[in-house]
Structures are given as C-alpha cells and as structure tokens.
TrEMBL record:
Source species taxonomy: Bacteria, Bacillati, Bacillota, Bacilli, Bacillales
Reaction(s) the record says it catalyses: a myo-inositol phosphate + H2O = myo-inositol + phosphate
Pfam families: Inositol_P (PF00459)
Protein name as annotated: inositol-phosphate phosphatase
Residues reported to bind Mg(2+) 2: 90, 93
Record keyword Magnesium present: yes
C-alpha cells in the first residue's frame, strides 16, 4: 500500500507539472516556432517539444533524483532497461497537429516501476482534458471516473488509424472494411485514451515508440481495454512496435482479422 501511496503522489505531481508545461505550450504557440525535421521531411520537432522535455527532466531530477526519464526528444538515449522508476514521456504527442492545427496534441506520461505500470496521464492541452490513472485504481477524465468498457460488435465499432497506413497496407484496408467507421486524429496517446473512454473502440498503428503508448495503455488497462502489438503480443516499451488498443470484446477479432485467420 505504501507503494501505491507513492504512485498517487507521483500522479498528482505529474499533473501539476503537466498543467505548468501546458501554459508554456499555449504561450509559445503564438510565438515564432523553431521547426526542425528529424528522420524525414515530415517528422517535425519544435523548440517547444524540447522545452517541455527539459522542463520535466529538471523537475523530475530535482524532486526524485533516483527516477529516470525516457523522453522522445533525446533523454530516451540513456535508457535501455526499465529497472527502477522510469517516467516515459512524450512532451508533445501530435507535433504535426501542434504546428499546423494548433490543436489536437497532448502531453503523455507513463510512470513505470521495474517495468510495471504505476500511473498514466494524457493531457489534451487545448481541450483541457486530462486523462489520468493510478494502476489498480481506475481511470479518470478531469477527475470523473471512467466506466469499464461495455461490449461492442466489431462490425459496429469505430476504429482510429492513420490513413497513410491504409494506402500502403492490405491488412489495414481489410481492417477498415470490417468496422463501421474509421477515424484519424494524429495523436496516438489521445487515441488510446479515447479507446479507454469509449469514444473510440479501437486504435491501430503499425509503428509506435514507447512514449507514444506508455501513458495511454495504463488508462486503457484501468477501463478493461487491451493493448498488444498486431501479433497479440505484450508490448515491451523498449522498442518501436505495432499496436492494437481496443475494447476487450473486439481486440482478438481485430488481431485475427489483421492476420487473415478469420
Ligand atoms: C506521432 C503521433 C502520430 C503517430 C506517429 C507518432 P509525435 O507522435 O502520435 O499520431 O501516427 O506515429 O510518431 O511525433 O507527434 O510525438
Ligand atoms: Ca516526433
Ligand atoms: Ca508521439
Ligand atoms: Ca512527440
């Protein structure tokens, strides 16, 4: 139980830092953005992404010197295992939305202890919607408990998926034809949070990094959802992988569909 008390403390602290970081983001959004590219011309990063990551690194190292940070904008390079307490951070998830749309982006954080979930937070900065959970104690949206997910039928479900995958991949086209409707938001952590809250029934990606999923999958676990890679295997959070985050009543159906076994 003392362990869980720590988890609540970390979650509360993380929430306060997220709100502070969000103020910085909302302020910088109207300044000139310093935009760079990373692996390819559409892989964007701004000084705000880096500023938010540095803000968290400073706060976490001052407050919890033994904790480590695995963040997208550089700090991940120091992490090759999940021993101890690791804060897995996406400082801005949905950078392309941030740059072009000024909305639909999130700060995502998963806190893990020896690889086991402790607390997850996903904050939609512009909608001011904070999804949070301490493992084992339910998930909340702006302080209101989210109910456990009810049953849905695969052919009446809503799937979120990047349309880019559909143009290249037959498996993805097959999945889209199976469900009632497909959507795309461009912000993985929030799409997983939407599955946790029932706004979506599933979210699929062929390639995500640990920081895209670490916060959201804790929320999802708390409302009874399932998150695996496309083969139905557990995610390691140490490498890039595919993802099916789904309502439990359709998760296996989607995995089977992806592999053409049904
Ligand atoms: C991206 C977003 C996007 C997903 C990409 C991610 P970023 O994260 O979550 O929705 O399709 O695979 O890389 O780079 O904006 O943090
Ligand atoms: Ca990125
Ligand atoms: Ca991301
Ligand atoms: Ca990011």
């Amino acid at each position: 139980m003392t362990e869980q008390l720590n988890y609540f403390k970390w979650k509360q602290q993380a929430e306060a830092w997220m709100r502070e970081a969000a103020d910085y983001i909302r302020w910088q959004m109207h300044e000139q953005l310093d935009i760079k590219t990373k692996e390819h011309k559409n892989d964007l990063v701004t000084h705000v992404d880096e500023g938010v990551e540095n803000f968290f690194i400073n706060k976490i190292s001052e407050t919890y010197p033994s904790h480590r940070v695995m963040g997208e904008e550089g700090s991940f390079k120091k992490i090759d295992d999940l021993s101890g307490v690791v804060w897995i951070l996406d400082p801005i998830d949905g950078t392309m939305n941030f740059v072009h749309q000024k909305s639909f982006f999130a700060i995502s954080l998963g806190i893990y202890v020896d690889g086991e979930p402790a607390a997850g937070l996903v904050y939609d900065v512009m909608a001011d919607e904070l999804y949070s959970a301490v493992a084992g104690f339910g998930a909340f949206l702006n302080g209101k408990r989210l109910p456990k997910l009810g049953r849905v039928k695969l052919d009446e479900s809503i799937l979120s998926i990047n349309p880019g995958w559909a143009s290249k991949d037959e498996t993805v086209r097959n999945l889209i034809e199976t469900v009632r409707g497909a959507r795309s938001y461009g912000v993985a952590s929030l799409e997983i949070a939407y599955v946790a809250s029932g706004r979506l029934d599933s979210y699929i990606s062929l390639n995500l990094a640990p920081w895209d999923v670490a916060g959201g999958i804790i929320l999802l676990q708390e409302t009874g959802g399932l998150a695996t890679n496309l083969k139905g295997e557990t995610l390691t959070l140490l490498k890039k992988d595919s993802l099916i985050a789904a309502n439990p009543s359709i998760h296996d159906g989607l995995v089977n569909r992806a592999f053409g076994t049904t």
